[in-house]
Design a protein that fits this description.
Belongs to the RnpA family. InterPro entries: Ribosomal_Su5_D2-typ_SF, Ribsml_uS5_D2-typ_fold_subgr, RNase_P, RNase_P_CS. Consists of a catalytic RNA component (M1 or rnpB) and a protein subunit. It catalyses: Endonucleolytic cleavage of RNA, removing 5'-extranucleotides from tRNA precursor. The structure is a single chain. This protein has three helices and four strands, in the order αβββαβα. It is of the alpha+beta class. It has one domain: Ribosomal Protein S5, domain 2. Helix 2 crosses helix 3. It starts with 9 loop residues before the first helix and ends in a 5-residue tail after the last helix. The relative contact order is 0.25.
């Protein structure tokens, strides 16, 4: 995904955390903040409880790939942050996709 589609700065992350709504399932927590912009932006957070840097980066790649596959279905007027819970490290790419799809439907990111 291009940099324009990412929430990168700490200030932007904090704004989504503090003023956005949160939704969760067993594998992910998602914070959503509606904004007026031409396309959605996403931030991904994977904590150290998931494993070493190699494991965390693998999880982030799976999340990014799933979001890239869903990008046509995602509401463009949102900033959202995806936080992976520790049990995500054992999931396959297809399981990550289905769990993200579930939490995105809960958060109304995908209609």
């Amino acid at each position: 995904m291009r940099k324009a589609y990412r929430v990168k700065k700490e200030k932007e992350f904090q704004k989504v955390f503090q003023t956005g709504q949160s939704f969760a399932n067993r594998k992910f927590v998602v914070y959503v903040l509606p904004k007026e912009q031409p396309h959605f932006r996403v931030g991904i957070s994977v904590g150290k409880k998931i494993g070493n840097a190699v494991a965390r980066n693998a999880v982030k790649r799976k999340i990014r790939a799933s979001i890239f596959d869903m990008k046509d279905m995602i509401n463009p007027h949102l900033d959202f942050i995806v936080i992976a819970r520790p049990s995500v490290s054992t999931l396959s790419s297809q399981e990550v996709y289905s769990n993200l799809l579930h939490v995105f439907k809960l958060a109304k990111i995908i209609s």
